[in-house]
Structure formats: structure tokens, C-alpha cells
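Justification of resources, computational component.

The compute hours requested in this renewal are based largely on the per-chain cost of generating structure records like the one below. Each record pairs the submitted sequence with a full C-alpha cell output. That output is archived, and it is also reused by downstream analysis tasks.
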Amino acid sequence: MAYAVKHKHSDDSGKKQPLWWRATKVASCILVVVIVFGFGVGVGNGRLSLAALQSQNKQLPAQLNYATVNQLYTALKNNYDGQLDETKLLDGMKGGLLTATGDPYTEYFSAADAKDFNNLLQGTFNGIGAELGQDANGNVEIIAPIDGTPAAKAGLRPQDLIESINGQSTAGLNVDEAVSKIRGPKGTQVTLKIVRGKTQELTFTITRDNITVPSVKWSILDNNIGYMQITQFTDDTASLARQAAQDFKDHGVQGVVLDLRGNPGGLVTAAVNVVSLWLPEGKTVMTERRGNNTVGTEVSNGLDPLDGIRTAVLIDGGSASAAEITAGALHDNNVATLFGTQSFGKGSEQNVIPLAGGAEAKITIARWYRPNGQNIDKKGIAPDRVVKITDDQIKSKQDPQKDAAIQFALTGK
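The structure output for this chain reads:
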């Protein structure tokens, strides 16, 4: 599922902790993923302080009454026909507390899950490379296969529904449960039964791998158009994107295509820095609100080597969280035109809070809004020019979406 994470708090050890989209993890529903990852994540620059976050739940007691929980534990311990594990029971209870919010982006990570989650910030993980989410009917679906990973090479597509994992139905499974079944050591295999387009049934057997995904790739096309693809927003995205922008500027490119298709999101700070490649200092990238109150604003930092260069941005149903922040900010500040199809729609932010024993809680703290005042949660961003791509075109390595974006960057038409 996708999630934009605003802050990652430091623990008591003094060791510096990374800040967290949305996706974007990914957000991308982003998205505990299988990359399996789920990120659409976002971490901001610290403007949204905890002191500014006024609780909407002051009516709740200072402490919960655990009498009934202990009663249930005693009944389980004394009557269950099987072996129980104390750590798993505690993790299940903690996870249930956050699940009770009804918010798919508020969730509990065990110590092992938290380690995997944080590894995603480095662009390295074990799995197949497919971000998972849930559709409106609760079906487990592919949000975005990461380019170059086993999932992408096998042919998984955004919005593919996972009907079964290794022969076990996904009915009733949440994203975390599906992720745990798809994850596994490098070299092992997982078999997914997929429903595509509501009618087509496909089976994929995919070999898991250790996956390292470069967050930014770029090139200068023959027609002197700069092409930049950002696959996720991680720690190195800002520096790589700046290198790409400087390369474009040095070569005097006529236009730029920014490809955010299949990008589940990532760090909000990275998104702000990418947007700032086009915008002068002080332009609004996004605002954060709790209820009707604005509690934070992200603005461009003025490093704008691409200011004034005609730009097309590519989005699709796999573009989530920090990718949507980027696309929305460039569009609403009138420096880019959007091509492709509707984006995913992940408009909330989360804090990641460390817990005892290496566990973490990811909690929704605010909603983010585009510079035009819109929140895109469950709606996504509509492109200025809708350009679809078919399975046959993908198989034949045609890309009408990219072609249309290049044409616009070249001619403005």
C-alpha cells in the first residue's frame, strides 16, 4: 500500500534515523510491500512539528483498560489446541490496535518488518519487486511492479488482482498478510494467480531476488530532449535528479520528459527537491492539514536549473504519494503538462514512531493538499492529456505515452 511518511523519529540511542511517502511506499497505496514493498512514502523537512499536531481524540481515556484483553489471553492460553508464541501474540495485539483505526496506512511493524521497511529507503530489499495494495472491493492488487525487478520481468502490471499465492486464496487477506506470503529468500519461487481486466486469468511463477533499484535514470534523446525517470523517492533521489538536471542544462536540451509512471512514492523531502529543479524559491509544493487547520507547508528551495524549459510529466495508476506530490506541484505551478492516465490517489501523511525492541508504528497524522487546494486521496490526479497504453503495445515495446510526452517537450503540441 502507498503511504507518505512525514517524520521518522530518532530513538534513544542517539543514532541518526532516516526521515520518511505516502509511497509513497510508497505510495503508493503504495503500499508494507513486497518488493515487495509498499511505499508511496514521504518525509518532510520538519515543518510539521509534533507540537502542532492537536489530538482529535481527547475524549479517550489516558490508559486503556486491559482487563478484558488479559481475560482473552487467559482463555486462549488455557484452551487453545496448539503452540502459542508470546512475541507473536504481542505483535498481533499491537497490530490489532492500529488496525482498529480503519485506516489502511496506519499500521504496526514488528522488528523484522521495520527493518525491511527502513531498508526500502536505501532502495534495497528482498522480494519480487511488486508493490501491493487493495482495491475498493478489498482485493489484493498490484500497484506497481518496479522496473527491472523479477515482477516486472515476469509481466505483472498495475491493477492486476492477486487471486492466490502459492495456491492459497487471497480472499480475506490484508496487504500485510499477502506481503508475508510473497516474501522469501533470494532464489526461492512464489506462484501468483492473477486476474487481469476482470476476465483474464494468468499464472506467474517468479523467482525472488535481492533487489537494488536506482531511483533515477536519465538520458538525452536524439532530438535533444532530456528524459528523466524516477522509480521511487529515496535517499539518493535528490542528488541524482540534480545531476540529471545539470546534464540537461549543460547540453541545452529543448525540453524535458519526467517519467513518474509506476512510482509508488517515497520521501517527501526528495519530492520537494525534485520539484525545486523547476521552481524558484518559495513556491508552494504542498500543504498539510489536520481537519480544517493548515499545520504545515512545503515550499521549493530555489535550486531551479530547469526553470523555463518545457516539461511533460508522465503518470499512471502506479504513480502514488510522493510521485503525486511532484506531479501536482509541477502542474499547479504551471511548469509542466501531465500525460498518461489517472494516478493512484494517496493523499495522507504518516509519522513512523520507534517502539521497544525495534518495532515501529506508522500513524496517519495529516492530509496533504496540492497547491491548487485539492486533496487527491482515493481520486488521484487526472492528466492534462489522457494517453492509454495497451498490453499489445507493451509486448511490442511501443510506448505511445512516452511518444506523446516527447512530442510535447519538443514542439509544445
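The domain at 213-345+375-411 is CATH 3.90.226.10 (2-enoyl-CoA Hydratase; Chain A, domain 1). The CA atoms of residues 121 and 234 lie 5 Å apart.
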